[in-house]
Amino acid sequence: MGIIQKQGIKSSIFIMIGFVIGAVNLLVLFPLFFSKNDQGLIRAMIDIGATLSVFCTLGTLPVVYKFFPFYNHYLGPKKNELPFLTLIINLIGFGLLLWIGWENKDFIIRKLGKSPSLATYFNYVYPYTFFLLIFYWLEAFAWGLQKGVFTNFLRETAIRILTTVLILAFGLKWLNLDHFILLFSGIYIIPTLLLIYNLSKSHEWSFRSFKISSVTKRLKWKMLNFALFVFAGQFFNLLARTNDTFMIVGLRGLSDAGIFAIATYVAAIMEIPQRSLTSISIPVLAKSWKDKDFANIKHVYHKSVSNLLAIGLLLFGLIWLNIENLVAFLNWISHKESGGYDALVPLIFIMGLAKLIDLATGVNGQIIGTSNYWRFDFFTNLFYIVLSIPLNYYLISHYQLIGLAYSNLAALILYNSVRFLFLYKKFKLQPYTLQHGLFLLLSIGCMFLVYKIPSVSNFALNIAIKSSIYGMGFYGLLIWINPAPELKVLIQDFLKNKLLRFLRR
Fold first, then answer.
1. Are 42 and 245 in contact (CB under 8 A)?
2. Residue 155 pLDDT more than 90?
3. DSSP code per residue over 220-253
4. Cα–Cα distance, 236 to 221 (Å, whole number)
5. How high is the mean pLDDT of the chain?
6. How far apart are the C-alpha atoms of 291 and 38, rounded to whole Å?
7. Which one, 166, 212, 252, 369, has the greatest CB density within 10 A?
8. Which helix (H) or strand (E) holds 20?
9. Collapsing DSSP states into helix, strand and coil, what is residue 393?
């Protein structure tokens, strides 16, 4: 896959490191030092901030993704006014948010009645939102310049390292909860400054032009139309993915939100390859549509499905086989609240299955979003939010957290089915082969056989045994069926070269 494969591997490494650090934070340090209520508070702050920051962009991010290379090509970095224009719009969006928040503060506090801690600290959401907004704005330009590797490092790794520092400071009693929340609200300041420095040093991005160019005058209505549709679609998609937290906080309280945060994070481990591939594939797909290189689009779609499905099955198997061991560890380490994490077993399984289905559809959303049919992206995301919100509300009310997991599974199946059918009907794109089906069935069979292996009393040893056996079985199937040649070559290269050299030392 050329540049996608090369940068995707680098991004995946940084994202994997970030997830490992995040796992230590969420599965060890947070349960050790914070109550489930406080964990839910921090999770709610993150999800609310992410949702509000996207709202504040007012559609500028998709405009940057699609039009920034065009601006740079015709105007050059020094005469490109897109950075200035989009920043002004983002600041207007944030100002609008502050006004809405001030006018409705009593309503917000009332709706948070079951989460008094969040009501107390809600004002800290605004600085968190602002700094995340600026980071998103800069990240969009970095992606346009194919600097996705560095931005993924900042977003996935650097942020989690800074979080670790704050948690340890809290655990050592250097900070109380008030100080922790205050510093956490500004956690994106350092990554933002580093990204500004990186962009400025590249000489391909400049903030010097404040004059409206002929390009903007010619494309303004096209950009506005594009921004409104794609922004609405992206915002609906994000809202569909974060309204879980909002509903749990409102209906169940912060303690359940803390449990759900852990389940979400563990299932999100499966997103590692998808998140790296997405950031790298967007500019490549955009260029392919511009050049009418349909063969490359088809190639990217097929390879994304092959690699993401294979990696997804590996990660899902490792998660499923070790869920009970994870819960045993959390119940052991949480001295503040002994036990209480048993609900994670079915939650993680169902949410992991939902992630696997999402991975198996590849970069379908990115293909649609970068094509001339990007309006369809808006309607699919609208469909997602219209479906998920009432479904979430009903199932949480009647079946508590497990109902929310089933809601996510159902919504993602329908959402991705609509996108798959659109790409097939409109472009005759169909990325699946018999190899994919055979590999899927045999991998599930391998998981089941390993699951039936009797467990040992030591959960760490149990994790090592079952993970090793499944890993070897998965590798055997990967070599035999060969559903993802690039992944097979990558693993073989690692085993034959890097691992052997390490063992010989």
1. no
2. no
3. HHHHHHHHHHHHHHHHHHHHHHHHHHHHHHHHT-
4. 22
5. 81
6. 51
7. 369
8. helix 3-24
9. helix
Burial of 71 (0-12, 13-18, 19+ CB in 10 A): buried
- Residue 379 contacts residue 365 (beta carbons within 8 Å): no
d(CA 199, CA 193): 10
| Coil, helix or strand at residue 91 | helix
Distance from C-alpha of 505 to C-alpha of 492, rounded to nearest angstrom: 19
Alpha helix ranges (H) inside 269-335: 272-290, 294-333
The predicted pLDDT at position 190 comes to 93
Tokens of 487: 């992944």
For residue 120, the model assigns a pLDDT of 82
Using alpha carbons, select from 45, 81, 43 the residue that is nearest to residue 64: 81
Residues 6+ apart with CB under 8 A from 92: 58
List the one residue out of 166, 176, 140 whose CA is nearest residue 155. 140
Q: Collect all residues with Cβ–Cβ distance below 8 Å to 30 and sequence separation of at least 6.
A: 39, 42, 167
Hey, what are 167's tokens? 């948690």
Cα separation, 419 vs 99, in Å, equals: 37
Please, are residues 7 and 142 in contact by the beta-carbon 8 Å criterion? no
Alpha helices in 76-176 (DSSP H): 82-103, 105-111, 116-121, 125-144, 148-152, 159-171
Distances in Å between the Cα of 500 and the Cα atoms of 340, 489, 495, 505 are: 43, 16, 6, 9
pLDDT tens digits, residue range 5-35?
A: 555 566 667 777 887 888 888 888 888 888 8
- What's the sign of the alpha-carbon dihedral 421, 423, 427, 431? negative
Can you tell me the distance from the alpha carbon of 259 to that of 268, in angstroms, rounded to the nearest whole number? Answer: 14
pLDDT in tens, 337-380: 555 777 888 889 999 999 999 999 988 888 887 788 877 877 88
